[in-house]
Structure formats: C-alpha cells, structure tokens
Specification:
Two copies of one chain form a homodimer. The first copy, chain A, has ten helices and 14 strands. By secondary structure, chain A is of the alpha/beta class. Chain A folds into two domains: about 160 residues, Rossmann fold (3-Layer(aba) Sandwich), CATH 3.40.50.720; about 150 residues, Dihydrodipicolinate Reductase, domain 2. At the A-B interface, strand 7, strand 9, strand 10 and strand 11 of A face strand 7, strand 9, strand 10 and strand 11 of B.
Chain lengths: ~375, ~375
C-alpha cells in the first residue's frame, strides 16, 4: 500500500506497547484473533460476511441489548453464554480471555463510550466511523487506548479495496500529474425510513449524511492528494422531507481547499443515491463509480478501465488488523485512531462552515 | 425536442414579426440562409465544419479586423470583397442584400455592441455565449432585435445534440423519478496560454471560466430540471497561476437551489480539464462524460449506455435556425435571447454570491 505523503501519524511502535499487550500477543501466536461484536445492527450483519471470509479472525463474543439478537447470533456462531454481554455487564469482559478485540458497531453516539470501556477492559478496539462527534473526543479515545496498552483502529474498509489503493497510487505518485480537482459524493435516499430511526436523531447520530458518510469523501480526497486541507466552505441544502429531517441535515455540500491549490467538492445527501469519485490531474483523470460504498467498485482512468478483483473489504480489513495484532505489530497508520481524528477535524470544520456561512481555516 | 416545463420564453410569434422581415422571409424561399461570420477567431474556425456540413446555410460574408484573415477566408469561401467588412465599416452591411444573418463570434465583450449594430442593420443575429456580461445588457439586446424586426439566437449548440435532448427527456419526464442532485462541471487547463490572451482580460472576457463556460453547467441543470433556480451560493477557488489570473477568476464552484429542492453543484475551472454531467433521480441516474464540450459525447443511465449518433452540433444548430428563419417562423425558445438572459441572470448571481460570500436570492 502506498504511503507517499501519508504520514504514519500516531501509530504505535512495538517498543511503546506495554508489557501486558506484548505478552498477550505472544500467547496468540498461531491462533485467530477473537473478536466480540459490540452492537448487532445493520453493519454487524454486513460484517458477518467479512468474518466468514476472514482467515485470521473468529467471532468469539457479542454485546447487545436485545435478548432475541443475542440468542440468534449465539446460535449462528456457536457463542457460549459467557461470551455474550449486555451493555450493562459489558465491563466484565475484562476478565474474559476468550476475547482479544471489541469491534464497536453501535450507533455513532456510543462509539466513544464503548471505546473507552473496551480499552479499560484491556481489549483492542476497532470502532466504526465516525470515530466520534468531535476531534477532542477522538483524541480522548486515542489517549485512553494508548494508556491501556491496546491498539485502536477505525473501520476504514476502503484502504483494503484495490480500487482505492490504485486511487492513492495515481494521486500521490502523480501518475497523471498534479491532481487539481476532486469531486467525491455519497448519499442514500432515506425516504421511507421510520421517523424514529437513530440516523435521524442528533443525540445518537451526531448529524445527518455528513456525519454518517462524510468521512469517505473527506478521507479519499486526503489520501489521493496526500495532503491535509487548509480551509473549507460548506452549505446545508434544503429540507425536502421535513417529517424526517427535524434534527439532522438532509444534505450538505462542501469544498475543501488543499495546500497544492487542489479543490475537492462533495455532496453528502439523504435525499438521493449517489456514489462517485473523480479526480482531474494535469494529464488525465481517474474515477470510480460506485466509489465509496461496499462495492463492487468500477473504475477507469482517462486511458483505460480498471481491472481489479472484487474483494471483501471487511474480510481484508479484519485480516490485516489480525495479522498486525497477532504479530504484536502496530496497526497501519491509515486505519489508526489518528486518521479518525484528522477526518473528524475536517468534519467539524465542514459543519462550522455550513452553520456560519463563513470559510473555516483548518490550519490553526 | 422535449419542451415539458421549459417555457417558450420571449420567442416571437409569426404575427409579431414586422412586415419587412416577413417579406424578406418570403424572398428567401427555396434558398439558403446567407450568413456573415463576425469575428474570425477560434470558434469561427470550429464553425467552419458546421457551415460545411450545413444543408441550409451558406457563408456569404465575413467581418474581421485582420486583413490577412479576410484574404484567407475570402479565398477559402469565395467571398467577394463587397461582403467582407471591418469592424469600422460593418454598419454598411445594412444595404447588402447578400447577407441575411450575422453570426457574432467575437470576444465576449463585443457581443452586445455587434448585436445592436447587426440588428440596426436589419440582419438576424446569432450571438455566441455568453450573450453579454449582465442580464440588463441581454434585455437591451432582446429589445433591440425585436424593435428591428430581426430574430435573435444564442449559439446554444447543446440543444442539437441527441445526448442532451435525451438528458432533457429523462429529467423533465421524470423517467427515473424526480432529479435530486446534479453535478455539472466544465474546465480547460489554460497553463501555457499567452498572458495577453483576451480570455484573461476582464474588460473583454467579462470574467474567467464562469463567464466563458459557466452557461453550459447552468443551462443543462435548468433544462434537465425544467425549473429556474431560486438561490445560489458560490466560492472562488485559489489562484495557482498568479501570472495569468490577475484579472479574472482561475476557478469557481457554485451550488444552485431549485424550487423542487434539487441542487446542482458545479465547478468551472481554468486549472484542469473536466467535462462531466451527472443527475441522480429517485430511481436511477444518468450522466455524460464528455458532457458539455463539442463532443463526441458518451453517456449512460443506471440501466444502459446511451447509443446516439455523433452529430455536428454546429451544423444541426445552423440548419434549424435557417429552417425557421427561411420559413418565417419564430426561433425555438431554447436558443432564444430570453434563454441567454435567464442564464446571465444566474451567472450574475453566482459572481455576486462568490464575491459576497452570501447566498443570493434569484427570485426577486
């Protein structure tokens, strides 16, 4: 995977891992990484396929507030009662040697709390995006995991798709020259969603499509350019479904400005389906459509179509995380908590720009 | 051509044509429309192909300030001296029965002056886009042509490409349901252009890529939706070529808001090549790439690729204009001066929004 211009960030070095974690890693030689899924909603069901296809992970435990889900998952994955937790007794996981890592797929508003609790229980953590609602919370989560001697990853699955690895290569290696303009948009039409769905509730979702989907647009522009944006402008769009979008934005557009002069324009929306990435460079373009969803992706450059295998993003991500943790190696920077923090810094700036109507400086 | 939701605007009715024009139309039965090209720059050379392929037009005269160009064009098209004008003696065209129409391909800043002079000389007019620099000037040009009893068209070539006729049908007939999001961008990298090129001079170009290319993005969103935008936000991008872009913007992004709740986001840029149109509707999408240039275009919907013949946009446009004028019929609304006025109203709003940083109301 290309790392040009893409700093290692705050990833751990082997020496920095506390003794407890090193010992545990030693114990795990030649075994699978035992994962507890925390939150058995929609994305947990997506991860089922990833876990099934994974070579190095085993679903060893669950955390859920719904007894019927517990029964169903326990049966399907042969999970013993002692590895099935509720949100109330979750902290008892500290004394469960069957669990190495907690994968948090809860609604957004619970990401921080359960990351802190999992870290305190001495378990490695994968937290789904958005990592938290603020950069400050992300930092708190990073610090808590470091202090506890556990590794922290954000579920940045796109880094494991060959199409996105190619986007990075094309952009950062300037294969078509300097990238000048990126257009990256993602949205799903939510008409028909129950009005009490958590995605519509500010307290638990943290926001609308920007909070839920925005990291994919933000991050792909960052890793294709290999730069951090210095400023942002943004605009809330109109509300066309007022019965649903009372608390969070229905759609939002923004423009990121990068040090090289490159611009990335994006839409995130809940009023239509859109899933595309395009980059124009001095001597050509490259693009994906679908681009940012679970795939399968389809891409091309101005010269030729992409021809990459379809991969299970989740399985590839889980296996890479397992390989690193089982070998007692720090996780790759591109899925680190530090990455999540950088994305959340931009997301916060986008909301601030849309709310104020002013360009927001991201350098200070 | 679909006209659903696309008003007839201020197109002339037959009865409204003054007697002089009706008589002239009668005289022209069974003959070609005789055109004088005014301004022999880059686009005049593009039009050469259109004129050659046209069945109903004849290049009968020229207007140029460059004697060498006059000699070359006169020789190539066997144009007699009496049909070759300079900008100084152009008004004498009033007494030249060999010329029916003046096609103005001058730099932007001369569009208004020569439209008024051609109208005063009793000649029909095609003026290239942008029609003028302000909505007020467009109105003045419309009024002058109406008063003179001549027809006025803007060189809106895209209406004659089957790909765009299909875009209109898909959008206005809601073939994939209501369109919610349009992304339409157009740009050409101008690095290497001579610093004294007129496109870089505010007085003669009127602006940068928005003024030169913006109408294509604005208009395609208008005719796909069959609506007029009610508000706009816009942002100037950074200047990466400060030696060139001292007077006009190097790039600009904007967001148009339509009564239905649909949004159109666009970039116009002189720092990279981009040429794409995408529309997301409730049950699918449709897109072109290339989309807004001279073609050939390539398009698809979420269901299938487009399969339309390549047409010479300019020839099709010239022939349609000729057919209408020769039959003494008012020109189609979609290429009317009123269309140009509506586009310029939006372009003015975009500049105002980018300059002020405020959302601009387009309804008042």
């Amino acid at each position: 995977m290309e790392q040009i211009g893409w700093g290692l960030g705050a990833s751990l070095t082997l020496a920095s891992l506390p003794a407890m974690a090193r010992e545990r890693a030693g114990v795990m030689d030649n075994k699978k990484l035992n994962i507890a899924l925390c939150g058995l909603g929609r994305y947990a069901n997506v991860l089922k396929g990833g876990l099934a296809a994974s070579q190095s992970c085993r679903l060893a435990g669950i955390v859920t507030g719904t007894p019927t889900k517990a029964a169903q998952w326990q049966s399907e994955f042969r999970i013993p009662d002692k590895n099935s937790y509720t949100y109330q007794n979750f902290d008892q996981i500290v004394s469960n040697p069957d669990i190495d890592l907690v994968y948090i797929t809860l609604p957004n508003g619970l990401h921080k709390e359960f990351t802190l609790r999992a870290a305190k229980a001495g378990k490695h953590v994968i937290v789904e995006k958005p990592m938290a609602f603020t950069e400050k919370d992300c930092q708190e989560m990073i610090d808590a995991c470091r202090k506890a001697g556990v590794q922290l990853a954000v579920g940045y699955r796109l880094h494991y798709d060959p199409h996105h690895i190619e986007l990075k290569r094309l952009g950062q290696h300037k294969v078509f020259g300097q990238v000048r303009l990126i257009e990256a948009s993602l949205g799903y039409r939510l008409a028909g969603i129950p009005p009490d769905d958590w995605h519509l509730k500010k307290a638990i979702a943290g926001g609308g499509p920007l909070m839920n989907l925005g990291v994919y647009c933000v991050q792909s522009s960052r890793y294709v350019l290999g730069e951090e944006p210095v400023a942002v402008t943004a605009q809330f769009g109109p509300v066309t479904m007022p019965d649903l979008f009372k608390e969070v934005e229905e759609n939002i557009t923004w423009q990121l400005y990068f040090p090289s002069g490159a611009i990335c324009t994006s839409s995130c929306t809940s009023n239509c389906n859109v899933d595309r990435f395009y980059a124009s460079a001095d001597e050509g373009y490259f693009e994906l459509q679908p681009a940012l969803s679970y795939g399968p992706f389809k891409g091309r450059t101005s010269q030729a179509a992409f021809n990459f295998p379809v991969v299970n993003q989740q399985a590839a991500q889980l296996d890479d995380i397992a390989r690193h943790i089982l070998a007692n190696k720090p996780l790759p920077a591109h899925i680190s908590g530090e990455e999540g923090r950088k994305d959340m810094r931009v997301i916060e700036g986008i909301y601030q720009a849309a709310t104020s109507g002013q360009k927001v400086d991201l350098t200070s």
